């Protein structure tokens, strides 16, 4: 029976094409170039939301049972700090622009090459997409957004680089625009990141799920240089979307990007809300299992209660 | 047994003093004036988080079983629109400042009088506090923050006025500061609200849960005039914190307040994250009950799976 469940899991994963964090990986292959944008069947609210993902597909079982699920609160005791020298990160520029898709569950940029080399493993960049508000908590603190750069190895392992995005100050933005020399280190959390401003400048053109647009030319070095200059908080977690597969190598950057208030409103009005609730500490029981026990006990108490009190 | 559970529920509610949305109401009376700030025992992450509130206290059972729980997605079909003329809202200014407390689960301003009169009922203002990111979703869209003004009637009914807070643009903020004549309607979502800037100017002084500070003088008319000039989206829901009591009259404002990026960072660094996940559509089964069934099925499948496959 163990084998059957496993087989079912793999079969279901391999045959479905769903829009999610795994989009563009072996778990959820993309449509061919020029093909239609596939829209996700899961969501973030109600019965298709993260509390019920396991019930949507047999393949999603681990969403409710896995003990190393993401996102988590990046508190001091759950991650290892990886120094910049131990990571090689490259992302190709996209001088002709990139395909930018609305998958219903996120907005995603299809990349044109890039790699992550860490601990002797090599991963190839597939895409990056956005969550709003942030999925990981930065030591208990919600961030405005989070960017996920999704990599896959030749052996189909998945690594994700997560980068928090804060709201840039309009005044700082104006100053940065006027200045020809930008001190990047100082502007990390206060000035808008040009890459994000460029991408989000066309996000209103993909307001409808299933649509796509070509971005203006994208220069990736600004973000890559920022991210690879700072340590990463690493841990072994999962996809934050169905099928919630585990064994994902998370690299949460300690560098932060910025988005201008105007661009934030634009992308927020398209994304809406796509943040999975914080999962339990890695290695602890899935919080949905704990919740189910507590809820079941409550349900039994309610069900057992007669409407009319028995005679004393 | 029905009566015993009810009695237990009421007894537990009446005898405990917890920091929450119900703080300052009959459910969770405040300490006397000048008393210590009581810090909440629930939280937003892991086993003390919203997926497990029902298991923390018998009194919290309805968090997992209630069918009219808050917050919800304020989509078109779940609320009634209440016109401004049908609501009387007043909030007293606080010329000597107000007590501003860190309850661990939120930061809260203790008010000094105010009332809400609606549908022939009269409610008295107890306090207002903040959630980050927003708890309600504005037609599927997450907002940066949400302010909850909590009112209680003489018969101990609770009404809450919820107001979304967006990130104000720094440029707009600077312009508003320079201008002596502010067009309130235009500035709703782009300029910072003076009341919020004033309150949050001292939020870093209550970074530690259990501490309090006196705010500068608070003029309430700016916010009250804005809010009472726009329709409310009303529905019958619950407290968004334990004990999740239902029968709460929600009035979600269609006016929005603004917070400057700098003040947002200040208050975010104190609050961290205190947003309960979106609940099911009012009248539908509690999403934790639905989740428990799905999770239980998944758990059974995992538990039933032998490690070694049986011979064919």
UniProtKB/TrEMBL annotation, chains A, B:
Residues 40-302 form the Alpha-carbonic anhydrase domain. GO terms for molecular function: carbonate dehydratase activity; zinc ion binding. The keyword Glycosyltransferase does not apply. PROSITE patterns: ALPHA_CA_2 (PS51144). It catalyses: hydrogencarbonate + H(+) = CO2 + H2O. It is an enzyme of class 4 (lyase). Its EC number is 4.2.1.1. Residues 1-19 form the signal peptide. Pfam families: Carb_anhydrase. Keywords: Lyase, Membrane, Metal-binding, Signal, Transmembrane, Transmembrane helix, Zinc. The chain crosses the membrane at residues 287-309. InterPro entries: Alpha_CA_prokaryot-like (IPR041891), CA_dom (IPR001148), CA_dom_sf (IPR036398), Carbonic_anhydrase_a-class (IPR023561). PANTHER family: CARBONIC ANHYDRASE. Belongs to the alpha-carbonic anhydrase family. This is carbonic anhydrase. It comes from Staphylotrichum tortipilum. The lineage of its organism: Eukaryota, Fungi, Dikarya, Ascomycota, Pezizomycotina.
């Amino acid at each position: 029976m163990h084998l059957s469940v496993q087989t079912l899991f793999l079969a279901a994963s391999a045959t479905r094409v769903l829009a999610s964090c795994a989009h563009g990986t072996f778990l959820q292959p993309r449509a061919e170039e020029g093909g239609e944008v596939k829209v996700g069947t899961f969501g973030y609210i109600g019965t298709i939301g993260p509390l019920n993902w396991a019930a949507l597909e047999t393949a999603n079982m681990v969403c409710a049972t896995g003990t190393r699920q993401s996102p988590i609160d990046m508190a001091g005791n759950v991650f290892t700090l990886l120094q910049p020298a131990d990571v090689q990160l490259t992302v190709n520029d996209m001088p002709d622009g990139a395909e930018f898709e609305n998958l219903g569950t996120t907005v995603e940029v299809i990349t044109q090459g890039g790699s992550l080399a860490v601990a002797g493993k090599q991963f190839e960049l597939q895409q990056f997409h956005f969550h709003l508000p942030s999925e990981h908590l930065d030591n208990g603190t919600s961030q405005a957004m989070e960017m996920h750069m999704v990599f896959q190895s030749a052996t189909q392992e998945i690594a994700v680089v997560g980068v928090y995005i804060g709201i840039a100050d309009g005044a700082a933005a104006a100053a940065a625009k006027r200045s020809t020399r930008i001190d990047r280190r100082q502007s990390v959390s206060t000035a808008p990141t040009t890459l994000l401003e460029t991408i989000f400048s066309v996000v209103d053109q993909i307001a409808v799920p299933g649509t796509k647009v070509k971005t203006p030319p994208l220069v990736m070095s600004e973000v890559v240089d920022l991210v690879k200059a700072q340590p990463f908080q690493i841990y072994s977690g999962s996809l934050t979307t169905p099928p919630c597969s585990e064994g994902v190598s998370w690299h949460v950057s300690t560098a932060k990007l910025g988005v201008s208030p105007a661009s934030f409103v634009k992308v927020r009005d398209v994304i809406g809300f796509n943040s999975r609730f914080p999962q339990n500490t890695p290695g602890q029981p899935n919080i949905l299992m704990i919740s189910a026990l507590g809820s079941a006990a409550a349900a039994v108490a309610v069900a057992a209660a007669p409407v009319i009190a028995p005679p004393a």
